[in-house]
Amino acid sequence: MRIAYFNANLRKGQDGVTRVMYKMFEGAVARNVEAIAFASTLPDADDAIIPTYKVPSVVLPIQKSYRLALPSYHLFARRLNAFRPDIVHINSPCTLGLGALRYATHYDLPVVATYHTHFPTYPRYYRMEGLEEVVWKVSRRLYNNMDRTFVPSVPILEELKEHDIERLEYLPNGVDLSLFHPTRRSGPWRSRFGAGQKPVVLFVSRLVWEKDLAVLADVYSLLRSRGCNFEMVVVGDGHARNELEMMMPGAHFLGSQTGTTLAESYASSDIFVFPSTTETFGLVTLEAMASGLVPVAANVGGAAEIVQDGVSGIHVPPLDRIAMANEIERLLNNAHLRESMRAAAFRRANQYGWETILEQLFASYADVIDSSNRGRRSRAA
After folding, report:
1. With the CA atoms of 259, 318, 242 and 115 taken in that order, what torsion angle do they form, in degrees rounded to the nearest 10?
2. pLDDT tens digit string along 60-69?
């Protein structure tokens, strides 16, 4: 089996999508499966697990850490022809993904995708609500050309079905249980922010408005106005960072983190707040739970599935600032409740180990390739 992966960015740890993709690469290597990857932004040389190749691209004006590939598949076709892939796996519905789909169509190759990002919800955050149905139309056109689309949570899968997207397969993401673990809790880390015995509330995400940062800022202000005793830590970067810092005076902004540095920030905190309503899975929520944090998350998308309300965390209605502030305040004032939920969150996260998930992924690859080969034989007969 030879797999060609495509994603706009392959810088290790850049976001949840790249963390998931590196697990796919590791899965391929462990199974002696040949794999290759194409991206606009490549990993550092020491981080590359499989051969990776850069395609020509331009900088995105709003998010300069991301680049937009030029759309023609002829820019990578020669190298991909030499590799002779059995299947193409698209991980972002960008110009590079469209180029990969055109390549697969031209050479009659099976193609799959993972639905990592819920783009139809994004226009509402940039005052372009009228474009939401347009994005759904583009999404249908793209994903209905896939032999299979992997969807990481049941709520999102059902929503895609409602919008007439076909050939879907439920495949959750996993979490690196060796990296994200409560044993990485650090007293010196907590001392840096004057936490002492005070609980630390953590938010981890790209700092872009579609992560419902305005809700986060309002929740923070509500808790401060009530005199709650806690420290707020924000991990991540993005075009909204400067404005968000002004909206959250007194919060500690640490910038983008990866690897053990990120794992230490998780484990050294106590409560994980995640108001985003645009997640297909919400890997950061699962990473927080594996690190022993109690998540307070919007009851939508992946969090609605991962978090068991009242057991391993708390659900709040989407965009409900007061409800989210109330639940965080309840946890801040009840150490016993925090501890019981921390233990339950850790147990829940341990149900999402990668090995079973990767077994399903590679079995699905084999099934799609087999179906494609049968189709070719049938057409040739």
Report:
1. 50
2. 665 656 666 6
Q: Are 266 and 202 in contact (CB under 8 A)?
A: yes
Residue 40 Rama label (left phi>0; alpha psi -120 to 50; beta) = alpha
Give the model confidence (pLDDT) of 127-153 as tens digits.
666 778 888 898 899 999 999 999 999
Location of each CATH 3.40.50.2000 domain in the chain = 2-174+353-380, 182-352
**Res 311: pLDDT:** 97
The residue ranking higher by pLDDT, 57 or 75, is 75
- The values of phi and psi at residue 49, to 5°, are -100, -35
3-state secondary structure of 233: strand
Contact between residue 5 and residue 28 where contact means Cβ atoms under 8 Å apart: no
Provide CATH code, domain 182-352.
3.40.50.2000
CATH assignment, 2-174+353-380: 3.40.50.2000
Task: Please give the Cα distance from 239 to 126 (Å, whole number).
Answer: 13
Q: Where are the alpha helices (DSSP H) in 212-334?
A: 213-225, 241-247, 259-267, 283-290, 301-306, 321-332
Comparing C-alpha atoms, which of 91, 179, 171 is closest to residue 358? 171
Alpha-helical segments (H) within the chain: 16-30, 77-83, 95-106, 132-143, 154-162, 187-192, 213-225, 241-247, 259-267, 283-290, 301-306, 321-332, 335-349, 354-380
Q: CA torsion, points 248, 185, 357, 39, in degrees to nearest 10?
A: 60
